[in-house]
């Protein structure tokens, strides 16, 4: 059976994976870019944007595994964009431009389904109103035997963890305190019992924690 993986999921010391006040100009709300500074310097991030350069240290080695063996992604509607309620702007096609970095089918969970969006480079966004189990069934079918990545945001990752559908979770703890936003861990008390856990702190100051189903 293909595995369900979460990668490069950045949380503040107080457990927030995004700030408050998400908007078109501020995808992470008041958190700004602070949760992902560790990632921007890596070769993996540069490659994701089709750019040369970037550091090749431990952060990069861990970040770079996000795409290996992935055949589909599932994300929540708020990771796709800041619109809420019925879609008013069908022209806007997500934060990633015409050629998004996913290059696979992407299943966007939403209570407001709309026709699929076929982008350049192999990414097609499918908008589905489904339980995590049903969305995963569809994503697995589309992934053709490869793994499925849960891309976030925090409420979507939390729902898949609560349903015990995640096999590998890579969290990056960033030494900042956000104070408000959307938490990852709420309702997941004792989750550590289900996983083998390892952690490493890199010179940049973030701690990578991996939760792997034994
Ligand atoms: N820290 C990180 O590494 C990281 C990674 C990815 C994203 N993010 C950030 O996280 C934020 C978004 O996270 P979030 O927790 O606010 O939202 P989210 O998980 O992206 O999306 C939640 C929304 O998806 C829809 N949805 C979720 N489950 C559903 C289901 N089973 N059926 C139907 N619809 C469903 C609902 O929207 P509707 O009811 O409106 O349709 C729900 O409000 C953004 O700021 C993004 O930039 C952070």
From TrEMBL:
Q: Which residues form the Bacterial bifunctional deaminase-reductase C-terminal domain?
A: 8-201
The record's Pfam families line, in alphabetical order, gives: RibD_C (PF01872)
| Regions crossing the membrane | none
GO molecular function terms attached to this record = 5-amino-6-(5-phosphoribosylamino)uracil reductase activity
Q: Which GO terms describe its biological process?
A: riboflavin biosynthetic process
What name has this protein been given in UniProt? Answer: RibD C-terminal domain-containing protein
Organism whose genome encodes this protein: Nonomuraea pusilla
